[in-house]
């Protein structure tokens, strides 16, 4: 296995890096597996030990391997800190294509979704069911109407930016001036532009652990190193974050403080203020994802955005997709005007044009007289479904849950430790599609449930499936 092909003109340590990376990527070296000692590798490769040390140091800095005292050098078990290789090799680029990698469990979920099987209950999909999405009556619009809309510049449709500004003022009592808003094709486009313009390959970013950001391939594709920071009942742990900022020279902190995806946690006001102060002290910008902000079950006073606390240091992402459906694909980014201008210019250079159609329709929805009443009704229905699902899961022995204060995700933790591969398979066998914790973190002990998709008719079905799955998992664990 440890046979090194030495290429002319290529430093030996680079060849060692590429060999070890190839073993990791093709599965010959598995997560958590220990590598031979430095002395052994030097013997295998017939090189000086210092050359091996240099190669391993590079792999540690890239996040592919870790050194643990008493355990030696092992393959990183998660994606934390992983970035791309330092040398252009097109075959390797294809092998490490982050966008092409789909976990087998998720592949099976997607296959089941395509089959439209009545046996399957979809609580995996991250959007509202059609029966809850508010319906708005739009005036007759002609093709010419859209062609005549001239109020769009590089930042997006001006009337829509003005409407978003008014909604923010009404909801949170602070102003996001229209000139500070960049309309994007969903929240993920805003995130993509930030990665391309404000960060560089090799930069370190701190996120919550667990986090939906961990599941996104765009970080690995951009060569950004993610570092997870644990959370407690108040949100991201600041002692751990400060240590991370110092240790890894973190360039940005990305958080989802209100109804966090996937845990549903809401960061306390005390923690929000302390987070802002910490990042100010280290001059590290914060990216605040607030896409669930309008699906609150509590007063807006209790979930004041970080952007309101620190307008200059916080980049703020909002979206209408969680209310109007993902096909709307309307998001926005609030940043200093100079930053937004650069992001808009970058989007134009990448030819990521923004269609006027969804922007006009989104503005018509926001300015509809019934918008406020319909979103209030929506929140009421979502909360009712959340409470019903919470009541079911909290009564099933083995699961630990907490009712969220907004959003539409319930995070259920298995009290008896790690769920094994065969346990996850039981969910698929029983047709209960949930998001497993391992797509959000290295942990394998929790599930994310989209409770908005469980209406009264489906509640009893959900309860039966959940009880049956729990019984099987419990029986299998006792049989060990």
Assembly type of the chains comes to single chain
The residue-averaged pLDDT reads: 89
Shape: globular
Order of strands in the sheet with most strands: 6-13-12-11-10-7-8-9
* Biggest β-sheet strands, sense, barrel: 8 strands, mixed
Radius of gyration equals 24 Å
Structural class: alpha/beta
Question: Separation of termini?
Answer: 34 Å
Number of helical segments with 4 or more residues: 18
Q: Roughly what fraction of the amino acids lie in strands?
A: 15-25%
Number of domains in the coordinates? 3
User: And the CATH topology of the largest domain?
Assistant: Aspartate Aminotransferase, domain 2
Query: Please, what is the CATH homologous superfamily of the largest domain?
Result: Type I PLP-dependent aspartate aminotransferase-like (Major domain)
SS elements, strand count: 18
Q: Which CATH class of the largest domain is shown?
A: Alpha Beta
Q: What is the architecture of the largest domain at the second tier of CATH?
A: 3-Layer(aba) Sandwich
- Runs in which pLDDT lies below 50 for 5 or more consecutive residues are 87-95
- Relative helix content: 40-55%
Task: Describe the protein in words.
The chain has 3 domains: 12-95, Winged helix-like DNA-binding domain superfamily/Winged helix DNA-binding domain (Arc Repressor Mutant, subunit A, Orthogonal Bundle), CATH 1.10.10; 104-126 and 373-479, Aspartate Aminotransferase, domain 1, CATH 3.90.1150.10; 150-369, Aspartate Aminotransferase, domain 2, CATH 3.40.640.10. The protein is 42% helix and 15% strand. The protein contains 18 helices and 18 strands. A hairpin with a 7-residue loop joins strand 14 (399-401) and strand 15 (409-414). The longest helix has 24 residues, at 371-394. The protein is globular, with a radius of gyration of 24 Å. The two termini are 34 Å apart. Mean pLDDT is 89; it is low at 87-95.
């Amino acid at each position: 296995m440890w046979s090194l092909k030495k290429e002319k003109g290529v430093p030996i340590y680079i060849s060692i890096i590429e060999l070890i990376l190839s073993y990791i990527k093709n599965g010959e070296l598995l997560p958590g597996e220990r590598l031979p000692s430095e002395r052994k590798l030097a013997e295998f490769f017939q090189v000086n030990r210092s050359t091996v040390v240099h190669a391993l140091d590079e792999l540690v800095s890239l996040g592919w391997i870790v050194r643990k005292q008493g355990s030696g050098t092992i393959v990183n078990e998660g994606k934390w800190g992983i970035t791309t290789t330092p040398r252009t090799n097109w075959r390797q680029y294809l092998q490490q294509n982050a966008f092409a990698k789909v976990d087998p469990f998720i592949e099976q979920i997607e296959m089941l979704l395509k089959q439209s099987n009545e046996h399957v209950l979809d609580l995996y999909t991250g959007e509202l069911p059609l029966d809850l999405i508010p319906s708005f009556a739009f005036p007759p619009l002609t093709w010419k109407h859209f062609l005549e809309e001239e109020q769009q510049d590089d930042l997006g449709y001006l009337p829509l930016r003005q409407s978003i500004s008014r909604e923010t003022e009404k909801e949170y009592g602070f102003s996001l001036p229209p000139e500070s808003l960049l309309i994007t094709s969903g929240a993920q486009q805003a995130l993509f532009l930030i990665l391309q313009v404000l960060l560089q390959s090799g930069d370190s970013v701190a996120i919550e652990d667990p986090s939906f950001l961990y599941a996104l391939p765009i970080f690995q594709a951009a060569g950004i190193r993610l570092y997870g920071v644990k959370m407690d009942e108040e949100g991201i742990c600041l002692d751990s974050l400060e240590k991370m900022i110092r240790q890894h020279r973190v360039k940005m902190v990305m958080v989802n403080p209100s109804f966090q995806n996937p845990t549903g946690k809401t960061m306390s006001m005390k923690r929000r203020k302390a987070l802002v102060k910490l990042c100010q002290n280290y001059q590290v910008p914060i990216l605040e994802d607030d896409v669930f902000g309008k699906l609150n079950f509590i007063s807006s006073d209790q979930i004041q955005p970080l952007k309101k606390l620190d307008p200059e240091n916080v980049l703020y992402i909002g979206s209408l997709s969680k209310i109007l459906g993902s096909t709307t694909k309307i998001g926005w980014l609030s940043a200093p005007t100079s930053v937004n201008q650069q992001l808009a210019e970058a989007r134009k250079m990448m030819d990521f044009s923004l269609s006027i159609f969804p922007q006009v329709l989104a503005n018509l929805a926001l300015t509809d007289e019934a918008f406020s009443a319909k979103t209030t009704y929506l929140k009421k229905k979502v909360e009712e479904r959340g409470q019903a699902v919470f009541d079911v899961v909290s009564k099933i022995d083995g699961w630990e849950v907490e009712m969220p204060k907004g959003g539409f995700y319930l995070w259920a933790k298995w009290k008896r430790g790690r769920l094994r591969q065969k346990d996850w398979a039981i969910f698929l066998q029983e047709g209960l599609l949930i998001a497993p914790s391992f797509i959000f973190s290295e942990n394998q002990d929790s599930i994310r449930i989209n409770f908005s998709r469980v209406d009264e008719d489906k509640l009893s079905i959900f309860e039966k499936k959940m009880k049956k799955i729990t019984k099987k998992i419990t029986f299998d664990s006792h049989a060990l």
